[in-house]
Design a protein that fits this description.
Blueprint lengths: L10 H13 L12 H26 L9 H9 L12 E8 L8 E3 L4 E6 L2 E7 L3 E3 L7 E10 L1 E8 L9 E2 L5 E11 L7 E6 L12 E6 L5 E5 L13 E8 L12 E2 L11 E10 L7 H14 L6 H11 L3 E8 L10 E8 L7 H12 L8 E5 L2 E13 L8 H19 L9 H9 L5 E14 L8 E6 L10 E2 L2 E3 L9 E6 L2 E8 L2 E13 L4 E7 L1 E4 L11 E5 L12 E4 L8 E7 L4
Parallel strand pairs: 10-11, 17-18, 19-30, 19-31
Antiparallel strand pairs: 1-6, 1-15, 2-5, 3-4, 3-14, 4-6, 7-13, 8-12, 9-10, 9-13, 11-12, 16-17, 19-20, 20-29, 21-27, 22-29, 23-28, 24-25, 25-26, 26-27
Helix pairs in contact: 1-2, 3-4, 4-5
């Protein structure tokens, strides 16, 4: 008797195997397997085998976290690693409120759920405070409160009645896009006994007793979340007749990020808008949709390895990626790798979405609320801002006028968009290297009429002059080998130049930075001791430089920092530690594209 291969998945192979199997049977030796009747029967058998094999293959794939494709499978598998996907997160802003009642009162309460509105690109969003604030008058009788936290969304309530006789009863929160951090759970004893007990979200299950009032949260189907309670051994149980009352916020996620101007939607503390002054102390941030299934697959095993503690640099990174949904890019390194070295610290640089830096308040909140309880006592986390190095791109492009179907101006515009897109999608993140050949190929691919391009890159950084007429020292780390004699700057007013109309510039004299002015077309030295250059590491140090005023750039616009420019030695440019390579097209001279017609000879 012939053998049948059961390992094939392809329909044609399966059908061929069936034919070979039947031909080996004595009773079917004289059959024409290509005949219409037998061929149809074999098609049915082959399709059936193919479908079963495909189903088995998909089922097995859904049994493993890294190969699963269905969200329900990924969430279920992550549960085995004690990982719950992060819910949608409401944008959080902080506002200062001054209240002006007509008469003096002991205190004014800003009740939970007081509504405020904002508008972004013509779309209105509603914000609410999720806790009550009490405002007392100060010594002058002024009612003022700072940093009132408001979040975007709508507060909703829902109730369940516990019934153990219903085997299918579940406590699924009926709305999607809820922010679980705002969830409150209260258990009322019964409809006749109005005693209420607050249940808190379970944290470390090893410390929970059978009487602790806690709830457990897990994601269920359709991206909704489900409440479960203890069994009397781990957590207090709920019993028949208990009324579970929940209160939570439904949000639009990231849509209201960056909101910065707010006004009251209803009365605040019983006062109308003419008696309330609102200013913003922190723009809205951290809004996000429910965690994607790809992020769950990536983070679940990594966070499982941390066991809730921040020990390695990867631990810090993974914890923050889960808790702060507005992080676009993050890099973490130990103090032993810092410059200068700072043993006993861990450095964390973060770039949020649609922003360059976090506010000091957010950085403090990350350190205190997210890392304090997970951090090793002897290690101090330090949140840093990204260190931006701006890239200036100058490219000369030759094109074939016969092949070009648009105008040269349109071609130039398209090349500019190509360069911007390259930086947007490839760079603007930590640990990313700018590869000259990749950028050059992207420029050539913009239009099939382009024959070649010659692209030159320069770098510039900003030295922030905090106070004029005061000597300051500033270190600029380009982190790339730079060409000797290439350090220059935009113009500025120097303290040693008496004429207020004269502008001086930096120049590089064999590793020594000097200030000079131009007189009659010649460079005249003003100050020969204002800094040094390390060409190998790309470190530029400005020493005791006294700036009276920052001048205008080449476009005639006033600048707010001293701009220092260098030419890198290597075509490829690296970004180390907190450094981010960025193209800011709004900066004068950042993008210079010229196109030239090159006829065929």
């Amino acid at each position: 008797m012939g053998k049948f291969s059961a390992t094939e998945l392809d329909f044609d192979f399966i059908k061929s195997n069936l034919k070979d199997f039947l031909r080996d049977q004595a009773v079917f030796q004289d059959f024409d397997f290509e005949g219409s009747g037998m061929s149809i029967l074999l098609d049915v058998l082959a399709y059936n085998t193919h479908y079963l094999a495909l189903q088995a293959n998909l089922t097995v794939n859904e049994s493993f976290l890294d190969s699963a494709t269905l969200r329900e499978s990924i969430v279920s598998l992550a549960k085995h690693l004690n990982y719950t996907p992060t819910s949608a997160t409401a944008p959080l802003a902080k506002i200062n409120i001054e209240l002006k009642p007509t008469t003096q009162v002991p205190t004014i309460n800003i009740d939970r759920g007081t509504r405020f509105t904002t508008s972004i690109n013509g779309v209105s969003y509603s914000f609410v405070n999720i806790k009550t604030y009490s405002v007392l008058p100060d010594l002058t009788g002024k009612y003022f409160i700072e940093d009132v936290e408001i979040v975007e969304g709508k507060i909703l309530d829902f109730e369940y009645v516990v019934n153990s006789n219903s085997p299918l009863q579940r406590f699924v929160i009926p709305n999607k896009n809820i922010d679980t951090s705002t969830l409150s759970v209260v258990i009322q004893t019964s409809s006749t006994d109005t005693t209420n007990n607050v249940f808190l979200s379970a944290k470390d299950t090893t410390l929970i007793t059978g009487t602790d009032r806690v709830y457990f949260l897990q994601e269920s189907e359709s991206e909704k979340f489900e409440l479960t309670f203890g069994n009397g051994t781990v957590g207090a149980p709920v019993v028949d007749g208990n009324i579970i009352k929940i209160n939570y916020l439904v949000t639009n996620g990231p849509d209201a990020n960056s909101a910065r101007q707010f006004k009251q939607q209803a009365q605040v503390g019983g006062l109308t808008s003419d008696k309330v002054v609102i200013t913003t102390s922190q723009v809205a941030s951290n809004g996000a949709l429910i965690q994607s299934k790809e992020d769950v697959q990536f983070l679940a095993p990594k966070l499982f390895s941390t066991q809730g503690r921040a020990v390695t640099t990867a631990d810090y990174k993974n914890i923050l990626l889960k808790e702060r949904r507005d992080i676009e890019s993050i890099v973490v390194w130990g103090g032993e790798d810092a410059d200068p070295k700072a043993f006993g610290t861990v450095n964390i640089a973060i770039k949020p979405f649609n922003q360059t830096t976090y506010s000091n308040a957010i950085k403090k909140d990350i350190t205190n609320s997210l890392l304090k309880d997970r951090n090793i006592v002897s290690i101090t986390p330090v949140i840093q801002d990204p260190d931006f190095t701006y890239v200036n791109v100058t490219t000369d492009v030759n094109y074939d006028p016969v092949v070009l179907t648009s105008t040269s101006a349109k071609l130039q515009s398209n090349i500019e968009e190509t360069i911007k897109e390259y930086f947007k999608t490839t760079l603007n993140k930590f640990d990313i290297k700018l590869r000259h050949s990749v950028l050059s190929r992207a420029i050539d691919a913009t239009n099939n009429a382009i024959r070649n391009n010659e692209t030159v890159l320069t770098l510039e950084k900003e030295a922030n002059v905090l106070e004029f007429d005061t000597a300051f020292t500033f270190t600029l780390k380009f982190n790339n080998e730079i060409k000797k004699g290439s350090v220059t700057s935009l113009g500025f007013k120097h303290a040693l130049v008496a004429d207020p109309t004269e502008v001086v510039f930096l120049r590089d004299n064999n590793g020594i930075l000097e200030a000079y002015k131009v007189v009659g077309g010649e460079q005249v030295l003003v100050d020969g001791k204002i800094g040094t250059v390390d060409y190998t590491t790309g470190k530029v140090i400005l020493k005791n430089l006294k700036v009276n005023e920052l001048a205008t750039n080449e476009a005639g616009n006033k600048v707010t920092q001293l701009i220092v420019r260098v030419i890198p030695v290597n075509l490829d440019i690296e970004a180390l530690l907190a450094q981010i390579l960025s193209l800011d097209a709004t900066r004068f001279g950042s993008l210079n594209v010229s196109v030239k017609s090159e006829s065929v000879e």
